[in-house]
Amino acid sequence: MEIIKRDVLKEKPKEGEALGFGRYFTDYMFTMKYTKGKGWHDAKIEPNVPQPFDLATSVLHYAQGIFEGMKAFIQPDGSIAVFRPYENWARMNRSADRMCIPRFPEEVAEEGLEALLKLEKDWIPTAPGTALYIRPTIVATKVALGVHASTEYLFFIILSPVGSYYAHGLEPVKLIVEDFYSRSSLGGTGEAKCLGNYAASIKAGEIAEEKGFDQALWLDSAEKKYVEEVGSMNMFFVIGGEVVTPALTGSILPGITRKSCLQILREKGYAVAERRISIDEVAEAAKSGALSEAFGTGTAAVISPVGLIRYKDVDYTVNGGKMGEITRMLYDTITGIQYGKLPDPHGWRKAVN
Ligand SMILES: *Cc1c(COP(=O)(O)O)cnc(C)c1O
Description:
Layout: E1 2-3, E2 28-35, E3 39-47, H1 58-62, E4 65-67, E5 70-74, E6 80-83, H2 85-98, H3 106-119, E7 131-140, E8 152-162, E9 173-178, H4 195-210, E10 215-219, E11 227-230, E12 233-239, E13 242-246, H5 256-267, E14 272-275, H6 279-288, E15 291-298, E16 302-311, E17 314-317, H7 325-338, E18 349-352
Parallel strand pairs: 1-3, 9-10, 9-16, 13-14
Antiparallel strand pairs: 2-3, 2-8, 4-7, 5-6, 5-7, 6-18, 7-8, 10-11, 11-12, 12-13, 12-15, 15-16, 16-17
């Protein structure tokens, strides 16, 4: 892999400094280009510096672009491990299909990521709960305003040392059910990790924040009846001892943390269901006391307990606003595997060496 070095390195965040999420970026990035007729080419590592680009670059206008999110962790022996990167590469190529972006070679992306991580090892934070967030992205780079699939693309991977996703760490979050706006509909792009999905979601997020909530809880767009997901997380509920998560019906992002949680729960013998779950069922279960836990799952926040859900001006407290047992078990198991403190029976840790 070609590496173009920079003369002056950036200043790293200080030891013990609150990193937040996605505020700092490392010195280098991996890039490769696509040109129609030529395919993907010019894979290399180069300085992560501001890029000059034409304002008619198509991604700026029509959002033909996709991204991923994963994390790298320092292991107890000082080595680096990435959590399930092959799942992310496969999903990224599925997102590419949906957005008419040419598939990229996953082994080249993985090789680029590993070379980049080795170069940037000193940027991986080691304080509890911190990690190096990995953001692979593909954007349409053709300079043209016609609405067509671009014939040129840029693939890049940038890295950011991160702390906890929510300002208050593992404190349970407060959700407000959004029953007007929707982020995704059947046949739309909600299943793909594409740029526009988040643009569509910002309005509801702002409204939630204005009202003092952390995130909006999305319902299905057709009936505004069934729970879909939250911000950048998939949702789980524990109702009458059964762990329930919305089935992947086509408008929900298929999370890798979600998939990992389902596997852990099934292996540990919990009753698990992937099915449609109405917001009325959640509200009823909260009223009757059958709802014992609720949590969100995603790479950024890992597992995030939900302490309160507001629906049609009624507040439903979950587990007295505290983190539940199953939520805690999943958090401990997944982070234990990620940080190398637990065995890795499924081969989820990809060693970088
Ligand atoms: C990325 C993402 C998730 C979580 O997926 P993970 O693979 O677990 O990180 C959930 N919902 C949306 C909308 C997302 O973009």
